[in-house]
Design goal:
Elements lengths: L1 H9 L4 H16 L3 H9 L13 H11 L4 H15 L2
């Protein structure tokens, strides 16, 4: 599951994944919680099933550790992308 999730997250800025990023921004603007957003997304994205929605930070840290990635760097990159999209 983790490999497909990292691939999924890694492709958020282009192609089919770009739509997910826009959906996430829309959910944030509507005031949806991250858990609600991921729960609805998991209905059509099997790679998100099995994520512990009660500990999203812990899940992100775990997935990054498993793949030798720095969660803070990834979060900063996503914030930069979202910032350019909402200006």
């Amino acid at each position: 599951m983790a490999n497909s999730l990292m691939s999924f997250l890694g492709n958020m800025t282009g192609g089919r994944g770009g739509n997910i990023l826009m959906q996430a921004v829309g959910a944030m603007m509507r005031g949806d919680s991250p858990q609600d957003f991921l729960r609805s997304l998991a209905q059509t994205r099997p790679e998100l099933r099995g994520i512990n929605l009660n500990d999203l930070d812990g899940e992100a840290q775990r997935i990054c550790r498993e793949h030798g990635k720095n969660a803070d760097e990834i979060a900063d990159k996503i914030k930069q992308i979202v910032s350019t999209m909402t200006q």
